[in-house]
Structures are given as C-alpha cells and as structure tokens.
Amino acid sequence: MDTERGAVVAEPGWVPPALLLGFPLAGGVVAWVIQAAAAWLTTLPWVPRRRLVEWLAEQPETRRVIIAVGAGLVVGLLIGLTAIDDLVVITVRPEDATLVQGRKRLHVPRGVVTAVFREGKDLVVIDQDGEERWRTKVTLDAAAVRDAFVRHGYRWHDPT
Question: Which residue in 33, 72, 132, 143 is deepest, having the highest Cβ count within 10 Å?
Fold first, then answer.
C-alpha cells in the first residue's frame, strides 16, 4: 500500500486476529481430543509423557475437560502470539527503508543499501560494504516486496 510515508508492505489486517483466534481454537480442539482419548492413549507403549496422560485419564470428566482444553487454549495463545511477533512490516521510501519484525527494527538510509533480493523465503538487504544488513524469512507477497523497493529506486536483484 502506498502512503505519504512511502510503500508499506505487510500482511493483511485480518492475519493477526486470525492467528490470535485460530491457534487457541486449534489448541483447545486438539487438547479436547487428547483428553477424550486419554484412557485409550495409556494403553499405547510409545505415548510420550505417559504419567501425565495417566493422571489426566484418572480425573473426573469435567475436571479433565477443563484442564485439557484450558491448557490447549493457553498453548495455542502462546503460539499465536509468537506467530504475530514473527510478522514482518516493510516501509520503503525514496530516502530510506524500515523493516520491523517483532521487537527487531532495521532502519537503513537508501545510500547505504546497494542491493535487495529474495533468497528462497529470505529477504536480504546488502550494504555498501557488501555485508548483510538484514536477512529474515518473509511470508509477504514477493511481487509486492519487489515492487515497493523498485518503485522507490532501490537495486533489486532477481535470483538467477
């Protein structure tokens, strides 16, 4: 999206809420299935955390459901928050580029950047010394990322 501040490339606005809802929901469902099958799981010799599964199977059904689904929701929420922290937002202006991923932030003046390219899923920014200033996995639309940099005068290198 182009703004007065330049081109901003980010995941669609629905992605963070979907991650915050989807992972806990999935965690709760998986945990419910596990608690429902807990007695059967204790008969399998290869089940990890066997004592925990046995303990869960011994609990009254209501308590077992609350414990398992609650734990699944919490684990799913933590995974969702981690996924949101991994999202990348790129702002490209003619004078500089800013890349933000969670708590990491890179601000580079255009004069410092000699090349930008994708290497597999990684976005790589090279400085005037030939050093990588930034390398991170990016799930953003590759064409949108490329267009943002090219439109603002950065040297984009396509993989050969």
Answer: 72
Per-residue pLDDT of the chain (160 residues; tens, 9 = 90+): 555 578 999 999 999 999 999 999 999 999 999 999 998 998 998 988 889 989 999 999 999 999 999 999 999 999 999 999 999 999 999 999 999 998 999 999 999 999 999 999 999 999 999 999 999 899 999 999 999 999 999 999 987 6
Question: CATH 2.30.29 residue ranges in the chain?
Answer: 87-157
Instruction: For domain 87-157, say whether CATH 2.30.29 is its number.
Output: yes
100 contacts 136 by C-beta, under 8 angstroms: no
Helix axes 50-58, 15-36, angle to 10 degrees: 80
Residues 57, 42 contacting (CB under 8 angstroms): yes
3-state DSSP assignment of residue 100 = strand
The tokens describing 77, both together, are: 């929420």
Strands 113-119 and 156-157: parallel
For residue 24, the number of C-alpha atoms closer than 13 Å in the C-beta half-sphere is 11
Retrieve residue 153's tokens.
Answer: 């005068």
Strand partners, 127: 113
